[in-house]
Amino acid sequence: MPDESPPSDVLSFDLTCQRWLPVQYLDGTPGLLSIREVFEQAGQVRRLIGDVPTQEFALLRLLLAMVHDALQGPADIDEWADLWADDDCFAPLSGYLEKHRGRLDLLHATAPFFQVAGLRTGRDEVFDLNRIVADVPNGEPFLSARMPAVGRIGFAEAARWLIHAHAYDTSGIKTGVAGDDRVKGGKVYPLGVGWAGNLGGVFAEGATLRETLLLNLIAADTTDLHVGSDDRPAWRREACGPGATAQAALAQRPSGVRDLYTWQTRRLRLHFDAEGVHGVVLGYGDPLTPHNRHESEPMTGWRRSQAQEKKRGEALVYMPREHDPARQAWRGLAALIADRVPGTAQGSEPAASLRPGVLRWVARLATEGVLPRRYLIRARVVGALYGTQQSVIDDIVDDQVAMAVVLLHREHANHASVAIGAVTDAEACVSALGDLAGDLARTAGRAPEPVRDAAREAGFGALDGPYRTWLAALGEAEDPHEQRTVWQRDVYRIVSRLGRQLLTGAGDAAWEGRMVESKKGSVWLNSSLADRWFRGRLNTAVGAAFSSDAEAADAAGGTYESDSDSSSPKVPV
């Protein structure tokens, strides 16, 4: 039976019909849509756009929970294929939203969306919205247009930050709320960040929001994904009280992705008037430990943690693989596309890492022929980096890697191995560039580490665009190994150019050189010898891509000089 609408004199913000979801249309223009409109126009929308990238991830998971629940599936790959072929596949959402609109009202008197009615602290404190608005840097107000605090926001923005708080709220000591038996001295001590804050978030992005939703809509019969019979989102469960749900009940959950994507990690209550939201009460909600949740959480990669195995006394522990904000997503491609990376050379050893479940699902779609092998997706990576005992968000990661689904295809492993090998080529050549910078610093008596790191950063920066372009086109190749040769030549050319720039700027001190210690003892190191070592390392890394010395010299933009002290081919100097 549908929930009744509130009386006309009661404030309401019905998320099903009020516009609060920011989107980007296919022509690049922005818009603001209700949940109902998002599903109706999903084929014309390019993507969701959050106030911060992590907000987009949290909002996408909310919509996925709705689709899973409204469709009660998909049960298997055949049901999914029917949805993919049906332009009106989200039509059942209209009746579903109507049925549950009372629980999807941000301001509902007794069961407000993602909140606890009447939530209060022991002293009836109401806090600034800084507690949930994550684009206000803690202690750095001058980096935000909202300085120094958030006084008031509209209902649409409040709804987005509410969802984000459940997903990414910081840890730390929080003021206790009345009725929570975890309160000690008016406080609750740290219980961890919001669930998504534990993750190195990953999702598959298509050409439209419709495709993105479907690509991440994993069938219930998927291996290594737990979907229980009681899998329900938060709005179809009993409204939360101020404290944590009973431990006995939590022990059986999450019961599936609908439960997990809407997990109530916090207890919140917005304070508002007719003009908008002006305060919040925020406390801890239902705890959820991240270890060994790989069969419940498909939107992150996983790594084996021997440290946690020892600490917990368990034989096998997998932890979410977090993102490194200093490393481009393509450099971690193996963790995205390799099915399982073995822990050791022995096949019986558990996998050292597991790729995200959503990409395993896309691999299945490609392998079973539901998606054409040249269909292009973007593997989006999103995550929060916390600092100071997880009490602040220091950085947010947002990156993507475009690839054809053939790279995930189980029967076309050559494409994946070539793509991963190409990253290895880049790493080796950039390492050679860094060593050149370090050697040039040593010729002048300077510390090598700072300039080595700067050169490596410049090297990866220069290869970033070319690699992404090369990878996106790899799916078109009949022989991927030929394309690796093309890539190796490009890397050689790009890194050689950067090496020449370092040598040109090294100065007279580097040309004259000095005596330094090397692996073979003391040696007179100058820019000429540093260059020779650099070219030798490049040849070792990717020199096989050239059929002759002349080709390599042409790619490097130099001439050749014999190197009688090395068994490697002649190198350009």
Automatic annotation (TrEMBL):
Pfam families: CRISPR_Cse1
Residue numbers spanned by region Disordered: 553-573
Range of residues in the leader sequence: none
CDD domains reported for this sequence: Cse1_I-E
InterPro entries: CRISPR-assoc_prot_Cse1
Domain of life, source organism: Bacteria
Record protein name field: Type I-E CRISPR-associated protein Cse1/CasA
The species this protein was found in: Streptomyces endophytica
Gene that produces this protein: casA
